[in-house]
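Limitations
The structure tokens in this dataset are predictions for the assembled complex, not deposited experimental models. Users should treat interface geometry with appropriate caution, especially where small molecules or nucleic acid strands are included. An illustrative entry is reproduced here so readers can see what is and is not provided.
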Amino acid sequence: MRFSESFFADRFALTEHDLESYLSEALHEGGDYADLYFEYLATSSIGIDEGIIKSATEGVTLGVGVRVLSGERTGYAYSDDLSPEKIRKAARVAACIAKGPATVMRTGFETSQKHNLYPMLRAPHEMGLEERAELVRRADQAARAYDPRIFQVQATYADSLRYVMVATSEGQLSFDRQPMARMSIFALAREKDGSPQHGYSGGGGRVTLDFFLNEKTPEHFAKEAARQAIVQLGAAEAPAGETTVVLGAGWPGILLHEAVGHGLEADFNRKGTSAFSGRVGQKVASELCTVIDDGTINSRRGSLNVDDEGAPTQKNVLIENGILRGYLQDKLSSRLMKQAPTGNGRRESYQHIPMPRMTNTYMLAGQSDPEEIIRGVEKGIYCTTFSGGQVDITSGNFVFSATESYMIENGKLTRPLRGASLIGNGPEALKYVSMVGNDLKLDEGIGVCGKEGQSVPVGVGMPTVRIDKMTVGGTAA
Amino acid sequence: MSGTVVARDLEQLAADAVDAARKLGATDAECTISEGEEFSVSVRMREVESVKEAGSRGAGLRVLVGQRTGSSYTSDLSPEGISTMVNAALALAKITSEDPQAGLPEREMLGKLTGDLRMYDEAIEHLDAPLKIELAKRAEIAALDFDPRIQNSEGAGFSSSHSHRVFANSRGFVGSYRTTSCGLSVSPIAKQGESMERDYWYTASRFFSQLESPESVGRMAAERSIRRLNPRKVPTQKVPVIFEPRTARALLGDIFDAVNGSSIYKHASFLAGKLGEKIASENVTIVDDATIPGLFGTSPFDDEGVASRRTVVVEQGVLKNYLLNTYTARKLGMTSTGNASRGITGNAGVGPGNFFLEAGKSSAEQILSAIPNGLYVTELIGGGGNTVTGDFSSGAAGLWIENGKLTYPVSEITIAGNMQQMLKDIAEIGTDLEFRSSIAAPTIMIREMMISGQ
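Predicted assembly:
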């Protein structure tokens, strides 16, 4: 795309010369590098509850963030007003971090487009409002139809379209148009006079409404939420203590996100504050484990054509056959660590400073038949759905919370279990992986990752995996 | 868009948006406008790491056309921006359903507290950047110099913000208020041999003068990181558990979710249908009070224009009230408790005022001294409570209690129970209630919980 044809040039009468002048302003106190991040975000959402469409919302935000790097220092300011005076003012505020003679920026911009991972047939604003309403109505009806014990259903459809433009003092200019859509369904079930249990499901990606008409229907997600709620009606207390854990394919890949992904973000490793710091080349998992972070998978929730610093995303090997290979980099850390960028610089919005983040994190498939993995367990648990997780980067301890799991006794799934947290230590936990299934699956597209107050969409994936030892936080002795 | 808009202008803008919506066919409308500025600085290893300073604004509108609702928002407060927002909300109201309970609060519910609620500190707007950087540096230096085992740091940060929130509706309510807040935090890293641990401490207030000294924050953070070094993983067992105020607060957050009117009318809470029943031990009194001057959960009116108030939620173990906005109150045949909460647009949810467990009679030391063998929880990680069932399971770190004394650190364990039982098992409550955020609790001792470890 040529700059003059871009969304921002067209809509806000910006010229390349304007961008150069803002960047020069940002570097007038010195500094090594400056960039501008323009963002325009249009969102819509609609929700049904008790069979009533109770809410429908649309909105638009826009703004620009100006960043100056000087050694290890970052200066940042933003404006929700794209007038030249306001952008210049933000540039002067960001410039305060540097001290010295003005840095001269290169003139002229180069643009390159490496990926086109999420082409759109219809933009969200081209869809009728009624089409959105129909999606949540269908979800509501499908969940209720699944079983008469389902007595409450909430369904939400939300989409967004984000235009971004990043201009750097190194003369790079990148554009992207990023669609995102997601459905989520919450269902409550109860036996006559019994206590309720809930189920939750959802999915989507860098797609538009059409995805839910043609690929994964509202019924697909609704049935899954209803199924989970019904399963929970018969669930027994989860065990307490160390046991063998089998993780199902797909969403349980959240294990990788918490156990290794965060700990491999370059900011922590540059500062030496991660349990993985200084361990590149060392064994941190069993040789069955190869873990990838890949921002280039078509239409996935964690994918990006360019990261939020304008760098093309790529497929990065984090752990190869158990050996730690590398970190997830952003601009600042890759400069300071003198390592190649990996396309992992991300931010929540123009109001936020970018940092190294995951995209889609998954483990490569192994050789084992998933059923055989379960058959081989004398006593343990099999977990297929999780609600979330958290990690303490420094100690490496991580937690992830199972919402659907089953007791395994003598190689058979015997009964469903109530929710429980699982806890382990990042550099140790994957050493106990003794079998990896041939059934790699990516999640449905619902993950949100939080770090230092910033939320970004991510994906995870995993084949069925056996972990010989992990601590399960149930209540049954 | 001009830089500084005086309060009156934003109130007028909100009232005008409401009028515009009415003229175009809305039966009722409500508009929220907020503007704010934030400043934050982080320092690490004695050097400035980042400085961020900026401001932004936004407006949100919710309209009712009969019993149908539509909402919209924009960051563009120009006449065109507002006009687009109004039209979008009206168009959306055409695709939603008739909801018999949807609507604005009754006129007699609208109102605001008068008098100084101490939400705004003029000093904060005028703090200069070098002072703020200096405070963060002093806090981190205090941590780094505290002990040779503090060898690294995630840094220290000072942040401050001021904001202005305006609300107007078509039933004649127009109101606005300004708030400030500031905070200082430090996250030092302790190292000894192979063991590396991080903890943190912070101070936060609406008033600059009420912050704890940077030195005390730094020393406290360092002490907390050091005492976590070389943790053990204890065997799986059932023992008494003490939550220090920082972790007890998380339990209160789970209780808030369970008394939230939205969960109640959907039967999605283990406390639904339990009004008037004894749900907790007799020493438990839980209050929500948005009228206490100077705290983070204080406001003159809620996000629907209903005057703030004090609501006793649990009194001596008996569940007395749920926390409600107008909608959830109508669903339950009750009256709003002034707990409406929303960002800038959409239907209001339910949020806390100052939601807290009343202080008890014993000091934390006294509570500790009666425990022969148990866990003192200083950090909860992941997991938490299931509002529907009350099941609770979370990762934890802390210190092991032996013969009434804190001994060695423990980590990589979980604690679990069910909140219905945990509430009844609250044996002791400390005197150390402090309001560091809108949800607060003193030290809590629970008679018995399951610890999963080795």
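Some entries come with short summary sentences. For this one: Chain A has two domains: 3-233, 240-473.
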